[in-house]
Amino acid sequence: MPELPEVETIRRTLMKHVSGLVISKVNVLWPAVVQNWQERTFADVVTGRKINSIERRGKYLLFTLDEGWSLLAHMRMTGRLNYYPDEQTPERHTHLVFSLSQGELHFSDVRKFGRIQVIPTDMRLTSSSLAKLGPEPLEPDFTADLLGGRLTSKKLSIKATLLDQRVLAGLGNIYADEALFRAGIAPERKACSLSTEEIFKLHGGIQDVLNAGISSKGTSFRDYRDANGQKGNFQALLQVYGRGNEPCLHCGKLLEKLRLAGRTTVFCSHCQS
DNA sequence: ACTAACCTGTAA
DNA sequence: TTACAGGTTAGT
Hints:
The protein has a 5-stranded mixed sheet. A 4-stranded antiparallel sheet has the order 1-7-8-6, covered by helices on one side. It has helices spanning 4-18, 42-46, 144-151, 158-163, 173-183, 196-215; strands at 23-28, 34-35, 51-57, 60-65, 69-74, 79-84, 94-100, 104-109, 115-120, 256-260, 263-267. Helices cover 24% and strands 23% of the residues. Helix 5 (173-183) crosses helix 6. By secondary structure, the chain is an alpha+beta fold. It binds a DNA duplex through residues 1-3, 6, 59, 74-78, 93, 109-114, 129, 155-156, 160, 163, 165, 172-175, 218-224, 241, 261-264.
């Protein structure tokens, strides 16, 4: 579920609660949710560790613990991290409970795609999925030039290319469609066919839509909630995602729906070319 | 470059 | 009953 704005919102809401707290107990309710570090079991390593900080890289959350350990969390489609100030009976789809020096942190996930792994902090950028991630679209060094350089060799559609986390980290199906609409670019265009002008508009569209998503605390189209269980608000501002066969809010023409890179893609054939 | 796989829930 | 869902990966 969560893309960059949702993961960033979870990070911000979570950090207020758990930064500086100690993990006093780990209860793994569904073992496949955790990934151990070599011979050391997840609970073994994590019990007794202090949470120093939480960062985000693409759609991953990185918890820096003390003693040189880190947690790497990915929500995939329906994962949630929920903080409770008091002891709480795990709900139906909760797979992992951290008891903290104050309150509890629950990881739940209806579809069971999400994972949390423990890894030495100095290994996380080299021996994890983070190693292959493309640039952060909201960092100052993400320029239109940088984006253009990463698209020129790609013969795939621009939609599929934007979803490739090795090209750019953090976009998913919602924000890719919304960014392409803002840039006026048709999703089935080959990535390498974009003009300098179009890359410039796409760069702006990506940054604008991600910043707007964060400002609205994410998109709760269906399952997404922040660490306090609150919905986001960006679903009210979506221009194309989830609006197939509805009129374009800009020109009134019916929005078209097609399947690209295995994902439903919505766009306006009048406003986007 | 697609498709199936991983899962469960919900809506058509 | 079938199709589809904010993701990623490992297979053709």
